[in-house]
Amino acid sequence: MVTAISQNSAISQTGEQGFFRTDLNELFLKIFTAELTQQNPLSPMGNQEWVQQLAQFANVSQMTNFSKEMQSLKDSVNFMHATNLVGKEITYSQDNKTETGKVDSVTQKEGKIFLNIGTKEISLDQLISVKGEKI
User: Fold this and answer.
1) Would you give the end-to-end CA distance of the chain in angstroms?
2) Residue 57 and residue 50 in contact, taking contact as beta carbons nearer than 8 Å
3) Which domain holds residue 7?
4) Whole-model pTM?
């Protein structure tokens, strides 16, 4: 019961997406401490229940780390793909128009990859085709 209250307050303080960015170890210790102080002394929680909670915490922690690693891998692959476009002519969509240009360089800002064509920055999701290749 205390677990649900602690998790809900953590979500409301940091937002739904920010919840998983919270230090999970610190959150688990807070929940653990709250459960210890609130449990009935005549009927304390058994060892099996503690082990189950610890296992659940470990699973959430591992899934969060796995998700971060997969996102990092995806970002690396996208950046490698973008660097392979340097020097190639591409067709892209900008302001509801289709334009073409030669990719001069690649930059990454705030986790998003941009192809630089002259003074324009084109995100990868605006890319339509590469000369000789369809995307």
Assistant:
1) 51
2) no
3) 2-37+49-77
4) 0.54
